[in-house]
Amino acid sequence: MLTYTRVADVSEVPDPGTLLVEVDGEVVALFHVEGRFYAIDDVCTHDGGPLVDGELVDYKIACPRHGAKFDIRTGAALSMPAVRPTRSHAVKVEDGGVWVALESGPHGVSGPNNQAADFRSYVPTNTSAAASATPAAAGSSDPGNDPAAARAVAAAAPDNTTTGETAQPSAASASAGAPSEDAVREWLKEVKDPELFVNIVDLGLIYGVTLSASADVPDKHHVAIDMTMTSPACPAGPQLIADTKRAVSSRDCIAAVEVRIVMEPPWTPDRMTDAARDQLGIF
Question: Is the Cα torsion angle 242, 77, 42, 108 positive or negative in sign?
Fold first, then answer.
């Protein structure tokens, strides 16, 4: 049975409006929209930002840090970079006051004035398939592991007996010669965010790639990668940095890889490619 706690007078919260309240030692964001009250955890599931300080538009609250939006009625994550819901709580109005009962589960409940919404949550549903695709993506960069890729590289080789034209080096063949920035970006597409299962290039995390001849190893190159995170406290940061270094340093033409984390300009969802938006169901 739910235990309700009176958190405010009805008159304390304008319509539309927000109020930060405490229920049984937990911080809760209270919302008043079109005559109804709603309550969700005051925590953005992306990086822990306070939702009550964000912009409220209709039934959507935007985290002030990176713009992730949540449905105040259900707690559902509506936009990147958040992919997990925040808890919603039961709310009732009684004796001129607003009462909230905490929900212990991760997805919240539908209370008397906290009705379920039909907004879509953008949590990836085919995560197992996306995860299993990673080894295949990594292997595709080596023509020796993929007969079709090997034939494609062979077909791209110059044929002086016919046209005399020289084919442009592909990202796959670049590992055997002088690499290009485009080739490095293709290699980096093997690195996927462990929560979103989208590669870091399409997510817009790569700000720049700089190549230079190695001073220590002849015929090899040094690669410097300017990379950002979706938030300064991104828990996947160390893994993404390590995977980025491995994806590039494994090429024969690379002597060393430097990953430089930059937070300016800060990452925003509009840096994602159309491919990433399509994969995440954002239209």
Answer: negative
Alpha helix segments (H runs only) across the chain: 127-139, 147-156, 181-188, 237-249, 274-280
**3-state secondary structure (DSSP) of residue 282:** coil
Q: Calculate the CA 246 to chain-centre distance.
A: 21
Highest mean pLDDT among 15-24, 78-87, 154-163: 15-24
Domains of the chain: 5-101 (2.102.10.10), 127-280 (3.30.300.130)
Which are the contacts of 252, defined by CB distance < 8 A and separation ≥ 6? 175, 176
CB neighbour list of residue 132: distance below 8 Å, 6 or more residues apart: none
Above 90 in pLDDT, residue 245? yes
3-class secondary structure, 36 = strand
Beta-carbon contacts of 256 under 8 Å, excluding residues fewer than 6 positions away, are 214, 222, 223, 249
* Mean pLDDT of the 175-190 span: 86
Name the residue type at position 125. Answer: T
CA dist list (Å): 200 to 41, 124, 213, 258, 271: 29, 16, 25, 16, 11
CA atoms within 13 A on the CB side of 229: 19
Contact 222, 258 (CB under 8 A): yes
105: number of Cβ within 10 Å: 8
List, for residues 125-174, the tens digit of each pLDDT value. 333 333 333 333 334 344 444 444 444 434 444 444 444 444 444 444 45
pLDDT, one tens digit per residue, over 98-116 is 999 998 654 444 433 443 3
